[in-house]
Amino acid sequence: MSQRLNNLNTIVAVLKSGAEFYRKASRATGKTELESLFIEHAELREKVAVELSELIDEAGHEPAEASTVEQGRAHLTRIGTIFNDRDDTLVSGLEEHEDRTLAAFREAIQHRDNERDKPMLESYMQMFQHSHDKMRALKQAA
């Protein structure tokens, strides 16, 4: 598999695990406004993961599954909700996931093998920056 597809697969893996994390967080929160926001963020990740997976599939390769490292971090966050304020802990864990999502996009955008994907990835990254800004605002408000 080319480095281009490896970079795209890294993003797909982060997005898939992030979508799972957001879905589980939406069921764990007791606040309707957080539930709606978490579902919105899960759907965004699912949509972009599907679109990037189609590019990988069209190139004749298997799209990545969810990142086990990200899944582990999400699990630790959910364990943390037992000992700390549930919603604050979820928001904090999700905001950290947002940081890692943006880092995966930045790495792919800067890699020379993804030059032809750059406009598309930058467009997606703007959507995730907006998502990140919402989570950061929630974290700061807590």
From TrEMBL:
Name of the protein in question: DUF2383 domain-containing protein
NCBIfam families per record: PA2169 family four-helix-bundle protein
Classification via Pfam families: DUF2383
DUF2383 domain segment(s): 5-110
Stored InterPro entries: CHP02284 (IPR011971), DUF2383 (IPR019052), Ferritin-like (IPR012347)
Stretches assigned to coiled coil: none
Superkingdom of the organism of origin: Bacteria
